[in-house]
Every structure is written in C-alpha cells, then in structure tokens.
Design a protein that fits this description.
The complex is a heterodimer of chains A (about 425) and B (about 250). Chain A has helices at about 5-15, 25-40, 55-60, 110-115, 130, 140-150, 375-385, 390-405, 410-425; strands at about 85-90, 90-95, 100-105, 105-110, 155, 165-170, 175-185, 190-200, 205-210, 215-225, 230-240, 245-255, 255-265, 270-280, 285-295, 300-310, 315-325, 335-340, 350-355, 365-370. Chain A is α/β, with parallel strands linked by helices and about 425 residues long. In chain A, α7 (about 375-385) crosses α8. With about 250 residues, chain B is α/β, with parallel strands linked by helices. In chain B, α4 (about 120-130) crosses α6 and α6 runs parallel beside α7 (about 180-195). The chains are: A alpha/beta (about 425), B alpha/beta (about 250). The complex binds adenosine-5'-diphosphate (ADP) and magnesium ion. Adenosine-5'-diphosphate binds near residues 11, 38, 40, 41 and 43 of chain B.
C-alpha cells in the first residue's frame, strides 16, 4: 500500500466519529485549524522516516489499548516539597484533590475556563507554538492533541516563584484514553518550576507549550509513571527569548511505549536551553523514544541535550536528536550526548544524532554510545562484599547520575534519585 | 587460616595454564610474602582466590578457615573475611567513595547476620581511619578512585581494608608506584591491623616494603608455582642477587 494511502486510512479511522470538544470562544478556531493540520499531514505510520524506530500504531489506533493499573505503596513524589498540586484523574481535573489554584506570582486556570473567555493571553500560545514546531518536521500527533485536548491548565508566571506547580496525573481506569494540553507563559524576568508526575492513563497524549519571555526562566522536572502497560506520546514546544533559561528533565521508568518529543526554538540572544532525560527500560515490550529538535535562531546561545537509558531484558531505547543552527546564529554552543547502558545482549539502543549548521562561528558537538556494565567495576564492588545485583544497581545509578545532575534544584534531584534507587532495588 | 592445595588454573578463554600447582598454608596471625618475576602468576593467584571471572580452576582447592572459597561468589568470599588490595584499583565514576564504603561495610554485616552500622558510627569510624592514612574529606567525597594519584589509590585500598576488618588480607603490589613516605603510611596502616586473628599475604617485588611489614615466611613464585620458601632472609637474597640464582638452584 502506498504510504499516502496508508496515512489517509489511518487518519480517517482515527477521526471517524470523533467530534472536537465544544468549548467556546477562541479555542474552537484553534482546534479547527489543528484538525486541518492533522488532515493535511496525515497521522504517522511506522513507514514515516520520523517513526522509523518507533511504531505509532497503538498511539493512532481508533480503539485505544487498555493498561492494567500498577499498585504500589510508594507515596507521591516530591511530597516533602512545598508545591501547588493540580490533580487529574484519568485526564479529568479533580478540584477536591487539588490545592487552591492561586499562588503568589502565578495565574493558574483550567484550560476550559481560559478557552471560554473572549480575550485571553493563552490564545497567542495555544496551538501556536505547536504549529511553529511543525516545520521542518511534521508532528501530526501534536496537532491532533491541540484539536482534541479536553483538559489541562494554563499558567502565567509574572514574578520569581519559588513554589513549584505540580501536575499530578493519576491513572485509575484501565481503559482511559486521555488528551491533555497545558500552556505556560513565563513573562519577562519571571521564574517558575513545573513538575509533572504520574502515569496519567492507559493511553496518554499530552502537550506542553511554553513561551519564555526575555530574561525569564522555566524549570521543568517530570517523572513518567511506572504503570507497566501504559502508553504515552508527549510533546513539549518551547519558544525561548533573549537571556532566558529553559531547563527540562524527564525520568521514565516502565510503560510499554513512550515517545517524548521536545521541540525548542531559541529566538533571543544569550539564552540557555537544556533538555535531559534518564530512563530505565525492562522487558521485551518496553520501548522508549526521546525525539528532540533544537533550533538556534539567535546569537550566543547555549543548548544541551543529555540522555541516558538503561535497558535490560530485551528493552528498546531510541534517541533522535537534532541541533539546527540557522544562518546568523553565531557563537552557538550546542552539545548533545545520548548514551545507553545495555544490561544484556537482547536489549537495543537506536540513536540518530544530527547536526545541521548554517552559521560559521559555532561550536557544536554530539556523541552517542552504547555499552555494557563495566565488569571490572562490578568485580571490584563484589570483592568488597556488595552482592551482584546491588553492585549492578549502584553502577546503573552512577550511569544515570550525569543526566540527573542536569536538575538544578537539589531537593527535586535527590527525591528522584531516592525513588530511582528504590525502583531499581525493588525490581531486582 | 588460608589453605591452598595443588591449585591449577588456566585462562577460561585460552588454552593457557597459569598456575601449575600452588601449595600454600597461612596460619592465623602470620604474614607471608610472595615475590617473583613478572608474569609468574602472583596476581592471578590473588584474583582466583577472590573470585574474578575469566579463570578456570582445573585442579586443587582453596579454603579459608575450612570454608571452600572456590565455590563462593566474590561477595561471599568477602563476607567470610577475604580481602584483596588490588594491584590496579578500579575507578568507578558516579559512585561516591563514602557511599561505596558504607554499602560494602553494611553488605558484609548483613551477609554475616550482623546489624548495620548507623550513619553516625560509620562516619566517625571512617573519618578516624581516613585521617591516619592522610585521606582527606575531599577524597572521601569523590567518586571511587577517579582522579586519584597512584599513591592515593593504594591508600584508599588500605582504608577499605581497615573499614572491612577482614581476616585474610591479600596485598597485590600495594607498594608499587609509592614514594618512601607513602609506603611508610601504607605499611603503618597494615601494621595497625595486625592481630592474632588476622593474616596477610603480601605480594611484592621489593624488599623495602618488607622492611616495614615484617613477614614470617617468604615464598618465591616462578612460572605458576611456589619454587622456594624461607624466612625473611630469602627476601634479602632476592634484593641482592635477583631471581636468577634461586631459579637456577631449583631448576
Ligand atoms: N586475563 C588474562 N588474559 C591473558 N593473559 C593473562 C590474564 N591473566 C593473566 N595472564 C597471563 O598470565 C601470566 C601471569 O600473570 P600475572 O598473574 O599477572 O603475573 P604477575 O602478577 O606475577 O606479574 C602472564 O603471562 C599474564 O600475561
Ligand atoms: Mg601482578
């Protein structure tokens, strides 16, 4: 079957009988535009170049797959951190379980409330950054998200906010198929931290659009949940202004399918954009894909991509990372590293690092490695009495440490490190 | 303490015999030294005793206080009291020295059914022991052996030995790469651990370490076998005349 026909059929099947959420106001137009983008691009299939390593079939299927719930006695992440908790249960905002949405220096609203208003700042971001991010590579699932999102939050940071906002995504229904969309605007000189935690749903599509104005700072720390059978496709689109900072870190443990796309566009001079991820994959059905696209369109900016994956028992990890330096984006400092630790010969890591540079005064480097556990280090630890599995866990944590170091806030990093340690030892 | 009988070892991957019948008995509280030319199998002996992969025991046995070592995993051998100070200590990026020490101490205690050391007690002990080996706080914080000088690595081995309090300590060329002061420090560290219930097997090329750590018995190893044993005077003989005479004499 020709690819065009295959895509058209996939798209038609997915959209058949689907109607857009009927909000009010400006969102209807944004959704209709997004739907038009979906129809024009067509949904992805595994024959698309950008989906060569990851089969999107279960993400595009009209009948969503189910996912068993994962029960554990772990308390919530970041529980000791003073934060604004915003809870979604299978994609539906739960006011009773959430904190008051008012916080010093922040304006937080539910997406449905923001879209109901005639005039709202979010109109200039919702679907707008996503649409910008469709060039030069199409991301039809992100457009589908913009069209279909039923809930989410819009957050505007107007000051330096120390208290993080924590979006907590609980998964309670084995058949939940959820589309959430969040929008963040960090105003000039403002500063905020967004945390996202939890498995969310059996099938989860989530977008985050972030605009960081000049001199602003946005910190993002995410832990994707442990439910073994869950599937997720997430997109983060960021537009990064002059002298601003964008830093995002994601920890993934479990989930049969995860595709995290991060699309960063640096539009102002002297800005810094970092994106990092650590993942532990276990089992033949585990598939984790980080797809990153960083565009430098300003002078003297720094970008950094640091991705580490530990894969065992036949797990698959994917990294597609690109740095695009546009003409005139001089003094760009771009760095990209993707590494995997393969704990057995059945596991695999597929990496496609790319640089595309149209400026002459830049320093860009990228590297990708796959390696096994260091047998000498393992023996050294064991010779001191550390049991094999514990020694392997120590070395695994050490391998992931470099990615975790990308998190600026030590309390958050320590929480994730502790959790990871627990996960690794319980798993063994 | 340590009893080795007719130990034959070959490489697992190659048809190469390295140890060709080693016999060695070390009594509790005694210090034995092994000297011998490069490539005679000294490090191999220490690795096989501590359980490193890649070697195949084709004959013979080795036991510690009657327990068959060769049947155990490396961590079990450590828990029953065997310790090897490596000729080439391994660097482990990302694992802090302190975390490593605490994990090791507590893992051994757990394996022996003892209570784990509290964080405070551990810290107190490690600080005192580190101080006597001139290991500063920074070295304790850094990743295991990463960026350590040769001498620092060897002192770190002795610190681990001091913390783990093994019964049978094997030191593989702990003196190589050390200047005189560092060697004294290491020797003092070892001597501080000498006791009636603890034995040492010191592998070295040089008499000078044995000036500081006085052996009861000296063995000469050549081509995978112990070819001669004697008192401390044997080490002096090697120092003065090299191995040629001894090897000619036993040939
Ligand atoms: N893993 C190995 N692979 C190949 N050769 C080895 C290995 N281990 C030891 N050997 C060989 O065995 C012999 C003894 O080595 P070693 O035990 O290191 O001697 P020593 O410590 O006395 O210098 C040498 O010829 C050495 O090359
Ligand atoms: Mg040697």
């Amino acid at each position: 079957m020709a690819l065009a026909k295959l895509k058209a059929d996939t798209t038609a099947a997915r959209l058949s009988g689907v109607s857009l959420p009927d909000g009010a106001g400006w969102a209807n137009a944004a959704r209709a535009d997004a739907l038009a983008r979906v129809q024009q691009m067509g949904l992805p299939t595994k024959r698309d170049e950008y989906w060569k390593y990851t089969d999107p079939a279960s993400l595009t299927a009209a009948d969503p797959p189910t996912a068993a719930l994962f029960h554990n006695d772990e308390g919530p992440l970041f529980d000791a951190v003073d934060r604004v908790r915003i809870v979604f249960v299978d994609g539906v905002f739960d006011a009773a379980a959430s904190d008051d949405l008012s916080a010093e220096g922040l304006e937080i609203e539910r997406l449905v409330d923001a879209t109901a208003r005639d005039i709202h700042w979010a109109k200039d971001v919702y679907g707008v950054l996503e649409a910008r991010g469709q060039v030069p590579v199409e991301r039809p699932l992100a457009a589908l998200n913009t069209a279909m999102a039923t809930d989410g939050v819009v957050i505007r940071a107007t000051g330096k906010v120390t208290k993080p906002v924590n979006l907590i995504y609980l998964h309670k229904d084995v058949a939940s198929d959820v589309t959430l969309h969040n929008v963040v605007k960090v105003e000039a000189g403002a500063d905020m931290t967004l945390l996202e935690t939890g498995p969310a749903a059996a099938r989860f599509s989530k977008s985050l659009e972030v605009e960081v104005a000049d001199g602003g700072a946005f910190h993002h720390v995410r832990a994707q949940g442990r439910d073994h059978e869950r599937r997720a496709v997430t997109h983060c689109f960021a537009k990064i202004g002059a002298e601003s900072t964008f830093k995002s870190f994601t920890l993934t443990f479990n989930g049969v399918l995860t595709r995290n796309e991060c699309v960063l566009e640096i539009v102002g001079d002297d800005a810094v954009a970092h994106v990092a991820g650590a993942c532990v994959g276990d089992g033949r059905d585990f598939h984790h894909d980080d797809t990153v696209f960083v565009t430098h369109d300003a002078v003297n900016c720094e970008s950094r991509q640091v991705f580490k994956k530990v894969l065992r028992n036949g797990a698959t990890g994917v990294f597609q990372g690109k740095i695009l330096v546009k003409a005139g984006a001089q003094k760009t400092d771009g760095y990209q590293i993707s590494q995997s630790l393969l704990l057995d010969e059945d596991s695999q890591f597929l990496a496609k690092p790319e640089l595309e540079i149209y400026a002459d005064d830049v320093a860009c480097s990228h590297g990708s490695t796959s390696g096994a556990i260091d047998e000498d280090a393992l023996f050294y630890l064991r010779s001191r009495g550390v049991p094999e599995q514990e020694a392997q866990n120590l070395l695994t944590l050490a391998f992931l440490a470099e990615a975790l170091e990308e998190i600026e806030n030590d309390a958050l990093a320590d929480d994730l490190r502790d959790r990871l340690e627990g996960w690794l030892s319980r798993h063994s | 303490m340590l009893e080795i009988k007719d130990l034959h070892v070959k490489l697992e991957e190659e048809d190469k015999q390295i140890l060709k019948g080693v016999d060695l008995t070390i009594e509790p509280g005694s210090v034995h030294a092994i000297m011998g030319p490069n490539g005679s199998g000294k490090s191999t002996l220490s690795y096989v005793l501590s359980g490193k992969d890649g070697y195949e025991v084709t004959n013979g046995e080795a036991s510690l206080e009657g327990a068959d070592l060769l049947d155990m995993d490396p961590e079990e051998r450590a828990a029953v009291g065997l310790f090897l100070a490596f000729q080439y200590p391994v660097e482990i990026p990302g694992v802090g020295n302190m975390t490593f020490l605490r994990t090791a101490v507590n893992a051994q205690r757990k394996a022996r059914g003892e209570e784990e050391l509290s964080a405070a007690d551990f810290l107190k002990e490690v600080r005192a022991k580190a101080k006597s080996l001139k290991i500063d706080a920074d070295m304790l914080k850094r990743p295991v052996n990463v960026g350590f000088s040769g001498g620092e690595k060897k002192r770190n081995e002795i610190l681990q030995m001091a913390m783990l309090e093994p019964k049978m300590c094997i030191l593989d060329e702990t003196d190589s790469g050390l200047d005189v002061d560092a060697m004294k420090l290491v020797a003092e560290g070892v001597n501080a651990l000498r006791s009636t219930g603890r034995s040492f097997l010191v592998i070295t090329h040089y008499q000078r370490l044995l000036d500081h750590i006085k052996p009861d018995v000296v063995h000469i190893m050549a081509d995978g076998k112990i070819v001669k044993s004697g008192g401390p005077e044997l080490a002096l003989e090697v120092e003065n005349n090299g191995y040629a005479d001894i090897l000619a004499e036993v040939a």
